[in-house]
Structure formats: structure tokens, C-alpha cells
Amino acid sequence: MPTSRLGGSGLRLAYDRRIVAEDLTVAVPDRSFTVVIGPNACGKSTLLRALSRLLKPAAGSVLLDGEDIHRRPARAVARTLGLLPQSPTAPDGIGVAELVARGRYPHQGLLRQWSRDDERVVAESMAATGVDDLADRLVDELSGGQRQRVWLAMALAQQTPLLLLDEPTTYLDIAHQVEVLDLCARLHEEQGRTLVAVLHDLNHAARYATHLIAMRDGRVVAAGEPRQIVTADLVKEVFGLPCRVIDDPETGTPLVVPAARARVGTVAP
Amino acid sequence: MIVIRTARRLSLRLHPRALAVGTAGLLLALAAGVLAIGHGDYPMSPADVLRTLTGGGSPAEEFIVTELRLPRLVTALAVGAALGLAGAVFQSLVRNPLGSPDVLGFTQGAATGALVVVAVGGSSAALAGSAALGGIVTGVLIYLVAWRRGVHGYRLVLVGIGMSAILTGVNGYLMTRVPLMSASRAMLWLTGSLDGRGWSDAAPLLAALAVLVPVLLACAPALRMTELGDDAASGLGVNVHRLRMLLLAAAVLLVALAAAAAGPVSFVALTAPHLARRLTRAPGVNLLPAAVIGALIIVLADQVTLRVLPGQLPVGVVTGVIGGGYLAWLLATERRAGRL
């Protein structure tokens, strides 16, 4: 059993009285690239909100390093656990370097506004995400893919061993989706960070995740390495989609191919 | 950006342009203040004013400056700074450039409080107190109605506009109940005026500023983070809910006390933060420049009412005309730039 700094057990997740998940237990293996998948409204984003302290569970608790995450000071959590929400807003007229620098907030104070560490980490984060040549540009002027890399740089500048990403590829075209996911995989491998992402695309999840959590109706259907758990039966159970699972010719990871529309007899012309 | 660092892990970040705008605004406001003190039935040159302020004037000059004219100026500066600050906080909180206390109903609430006192008759101290109370009660009401798992920008704006409409109706009704003798007093108060303001009018607001300015400045970095959205700010370690409660309370208090001191001087809270942002060219909230610009606007507007326009016009007329014009221009240009 791998160790886990972040996880939750017996979680009841609810918005007011609408219960999204009941008795949910998850663990994020350390140094994994964990991806949560599932159909719409299965509770995957809600789970991420709970793990990132945005949603307080109605029952059960989320543990970070063995401590209830809601009992720890917000800033201390923010030095361990970073979050890139689904649609953050860039203030009007903010520059790239300035936005990335905001990731340093949990490390700063009234008398420690901009240390040498801050400066170095921001530069490194921009280099790691390939946005260093955009440093002086305005965020508003960037393309969607560039903007997402800037947000990732901000999250990196927070220097947290754990980083949660809520649908980081939404609204991006296929090339930018792959670019962002390649970047995440590289950050995971080179910097040894634990990443947790919610993704829509099952094939992306199967290709990039080292640990996959498949959810349906607020419960975990299967969790484990994609090669071991992604089967036609699982996809049928989770998404209700008949399919075949073949080997991805590029990576050897599972590739889900939806079944062709069933032909109900041929109609004569 | 200028960074000052010492060996002992201390590091400060200064924005030269914001610093320049703040300093220039402050100097202009003080210069206008010296001219303002010199103006009146007993004219004094700026040199005489400065001499008297530093304790070298004749007893007559001393009386005119410190008892008659300085309180008015200090009230003007304090009201302007309070409105500029509150406006900047509100606009940042509701993430809407139109989210000023004029629009959200706090000002109308203060007016309701004042009109009640005018209608039943009462001292000017009672009027000021009741106005402050009206603003604060309105703030609490808006907060309670807009509350739903935290206070969110849009709900606050919508509830505020609704509250503002209701209170405008209530104020109209109260005006009809005001005795004819007091009607002009009510109208004068409703426009916002600095006439005859003494130290006792400025004192509560000055005390509030002394406490709240440091609090607001300490909150400014966290407030900047909330501009990235609530989720992102939480992820960065900001306790968004607590921050919003604190800022809302501080801003409501400033607006209510400013209204108590000078009446609901219109459009300063809306205009000052915009001007500050345009001048500093810094994105997001700029508290101190907004406060300085607010103070400058009121002092200049007060001078316009005293020198340029005939008769004793209340200062709110001038800020209303300038601010309204600026707002119309802003809406037109922002629309053209596709930002609104």
C-alpha cells in the first residue's frame, strides 16, 4: 500500500441539502498523477472541492498529513496543497509575471512582501511552463493554451508538494489539451509533485494518469493503475457506454473506442 | 516596481507610479486646502494661512483658521478619503466597477436615518447619529438578504439595487411628512454639504479612519487575491468568507460615518477608485490612491461651490455633476472597448 498525505474517509459531500456523495473514501497515493473521471454530475469536481478545502464535508473528514484539513490555518494548508480552479479570473490589465507572482501569497507577509526566494521561484515557475518569454505580456492578450500555462505557473510558484487541478483542459482545443497534459506529466516526473486532476476525456486520463479513480453517482467504482482497471466492463459500468478497449499504439496504455451505433436492420432504399 | 530588502528577511515592495500618484494627490489636496482656508469674508494669503497653521498668527486669524475654516477642510478631506476607500473596497468585493455605495443603497439608508430625525425634529448631532445608524442597518439588511453560503458579488449588487429602490421610495414618503419649515434642511442634507462643519462633525469619522485604514491596508494583499476568484483565493490560503465580512463591515462603517458628517455626497465613492486605477495604471484594487483621490475630489468640488458658482451651493451638487458626467463617459468608453 503506497503512502498517502491526502485523502478522505467516510465523506458525506452535500450542497445545502442535496447530497452528492455518501460514505466516500479516497486516498491520493504520494507522488502519483491521480486523475478522477466519471460521467457528468458523478461528484468528481465536488470531491476535488472537498480535498482542496473549498467544501466542508457534512460528515467524515479530509486528512492532510494526518490532520483534519479544516482545522488547519488556511495559509499553512496553502503552503502544502495548491489548487487551480476550473475558471479562475485574471484581473483586468494584469501582466503575466505579476499573475504568476500572486502564487507566492501564502509565503508572504506584511514585512516579507517580495523576498529573493519569491523572485527566484517565480522565474523558475515561468521557465518550467515555458511562459518566461511572455513575462511582460498582458494575460488578456494570450491564447487559451498560453493562459492555462500561466495559471499553471502561478500554481507552481505556490511551491506545494500537492497540486489539485479542476478540469485543466476544458475550453482548450485538442493540441492545447495535449500540451497542458504533457506539461503536467513532465512536472509530475521531474519535480516529483503529487498531482490530482479532474478530467473529462477518458483516453487522456488513461494515458497520463499513474493512478485513476473512476466515480459514478458519488461513489468510487474502481481505483488503481489505468492498465489494470480500464476495461470495457468498467467503462460500461461507469459511463454506460458500450466500447472496446485496445492498446494505445503510441503509449501502450488503454484506449477506449466507443462501439459503433447498433444497426437495427437495413432499410431498403 | 521597487524592492527594498534588508538582511533580516524584511522585504517591501513599492510601486513607483502608485506612490507618485498618491504623493502628488496628497500634495494637491493639501495645497487646495491651504487656498480653501484662505478664502472667505476675511481673505488670507497662502503664506498667512501657513503661518497661522504653524502657530504664528494673530488671535483673530487663529480663530478663523482653526475654529471656522480648518474643521470644514478636515471634514472634507476625511469624507473624501472615507468614500474613496469604501468605494474601492466595494468595487473589489462585488467585482463590478459600478459597485459603489451610491448604487448599493447604503447611502439611501443613511438618508432615511437622517430624514427620520428631520421629520420628528432633532439636533444636528442626532441627525448625524441617525444617518450613521441608517447606513449601518441597511448594510446589515443587505448582508442578511444576500447571504447564501457566503456573500457573492452578483447577489450583493442585485439585493443592494433593490434595497436602494425601496429606500428611495421610503425617503420620498418621509420628505412628504417633513414639516415645511424643515424641508430645506432636509434637502440640503440630502445633497451633501460641508457648510458649518465643526470639529464635532469630523471627530467620529476621523476616529473610524484611524482604526480602519490600517485594518484595510493589512487586508489589501488578501483582497487582491480574491480578484482571481473565490476558489483561487481560497487555494492561495485566503479565508475568503471572513475577509469579506470584515471588509464589508469596514466599508459600510466608513460610508455611514461619511454620510453622517457631510450627507450623502454623491459619486465620489464611484469615481475615485476608477480615477486612481487609471492614474496608477495598476490592475485591481488601489486603496491608498483611491483615498487620496477621493479627498482631492471633495476639496476641489468644495472650492468650486465656494468660488465659481453663485450662491451657497452644497458640495454634493458639484460632485454629482462631475461624477455623473465621468460615469457616463466611463460607460461609453468601456462599452466601446468591449469591457462592459
Automatic annotation (TrEMBL), chain A:
SUPFAM superfamilies given in the database record: P-loop containing nucleoside triphosphate hydrolases
Pfam families: ABC_tran
Domain of life: Bacteria
Main location as per UniProt: membrane
Biological process, per Gene Ontology: iron ion transport
Domain ABC transporter residues, every copy: 6-242
Keywords linked to the UniProt accession: ATP-binding, Cell membrane, Ion transport, Iron, Iron transport, Membrane, Nucleotide-binding, Transport
Keyword Hydrolase: no
Record PROSITE patterns: ABC_TRANSPORTER_1, ABC_TRANSPORTER_2
Keyword Transmembrane found: no
Locations listed in the record: Cell membrane
CC annotations in GO: plasma membrane
Molecular function GO labels: ATP binding; ATP hydrolysis activity
Membrane topology term: Peripheral membrane protein
Name of this protein: Iron complex transport system ATP-binding protein
UniProtKB/TrEMBL annotation, chain B:
Bilayer topology annotation: Multi-pass membrane protein
GO molecular-function terms, A-Z: transmembrane transporter activity
PANTHER family: FERRIC ENTEROBACTIN TRANSPORT SYSTEM PERMEASE PROTEIN (PTHR30472), FERRIC ENTEROBACTIN TRANSPORT SYSTEM PERMEASE PROTEIN FEPG (PTHR30472:SF24)
Source superkingdom: Bacteria
CDD domains: TM_ABC_iron-siderophores_like (cd06550)
Keyword Transmembrane: yes
Listed name of the protein: Iron complex transport system permease protein
Gene Ontology biological-process entries: siderophore-iron import into cell
Subcellular location(s) of the protein: Cell membrane
Membrane-crossing residue ranges in chain numbering: 73-94, 114-147, 153-175, 202-223, 243-270, 282-301, 313-332
Primary localization class, coarse: membrane
Entry similarity comment: Belongs to the binding-protein-dependent transport system permease family. FecCD subfamily.
A GO CC term attached to the entry: plasma membrane
InterPro entries the record matches: ABC_BtuC-like (IPR037294), ABC_transptr_permease_BtuC (IPR000522)
Keyword line: Cell membrane, Membrane, Transmembrane, Transmembrane helix, Transport
Species name: Micromonospora phaseoli
